[in-house]
Amino acid sequence: MIVVEDLHRHFGGFRAVDGASLTIKTGSITGLIGPNGAGKTTLFNVIAGRLPPTSGRVLMDGQDITGLPPHVLFHKGLLRTFQIAHEFGSMTVRENLMMVPPNQAGETIWNSWFARGRVARQEAEIRKKADEVLEFLTIGHLADQKASMISGGQKKLLELGRTMMVDAKIVFLDEVGAGVNRTLLNTIGDAIVRLNKERGYTFCVIEHDMDFIGRLCDPVIVMAEGHVLAEGTVEQVKSDERVIEAYLGTGLKNKAKAEGFHV
């Protein structure tokens, strides 16, 4: 699905991504972990077209997508969410979903004047799909709420719902658990697993909650200092000496082993 080859992203003398290479396989839920400053979000931003790379390549299904802008990648089925949800607060939860599908007939003045029936039919179809998405995510009761009034976890579910409005192929989730209570995090996890198993979505997930990563993700890729440090199951990377050192420092290796490794 996604192949990253020797990717670099520099900001002046700072190498945020420094020769990262990795593969995200079709149908997987891949975890991406690493200490703060490891380059995870910058890597996401380069893959998703929000930042151009300094060098290196990104391939999607064998096609070079390096540097393509987000709106082009959107039409190819590559989407990403953000650590801080980007909802339209003055719109309802349902309206936030209904505005996602591209090329809607009602977007042109001509159709608004002379093709009202077509506009109304399409809007009804989109509304129906939005309601189906909200039910899938178990937040149908929030459909008419202003998006600014729902909780942080519910906003994360809404962002996930946006990806469902366009049948995404691969979704990059940036710290989906940040600021989310355990109950809602479990709901988000359930939705991700169902989208993966029932609808064939591929996911790549940045997350610091290792219980969440362990439940969802295989493989887990570890980044440190801008490059890939290790890859394997969650248990394999948690016991990797290089990973323990990257998180905790050489002097704490033995203590980390004795007490259990948490990130």
Automatic annotation (TrEMBL):
Domain of life: Bacteria
GO cellular component: plasma membrane
GO molecular function, one term: ATP hydrolysis activity
Tagged with keyword Transport: yes
UniProt keyword annotations, A-Z: ATP-binding, Nucleotide-binding, Transport
Gene3D superfamilies according to UniProt: P-loop containing nucleotide triphosphate hydrolases
Keyword check for rRNA processing: no
Coiled-coil features, chain-numbered ranges: none
Annotated PROSITE patterns: ABC_TRANSPORTER_1 (PS00211), ABC_TRANSPORTER_2 (PS50893)
Domain ABC transporter: 2-250
CDD domains registered for this protein in UniProt: ABC_Mj1267_LivG_branched (cd03219)
InterPro entries: AAA+_ATPase, ABC_AA/LPS_Transport, ABC_transporter-like_ATP-bd, ABC_transporter-like_CS, BCA_ABC_TP_C, P-loop_NTPase
Protein name: ABC transporter ATP-binding protein
Organism of this sequence: Tabrizicola piscis
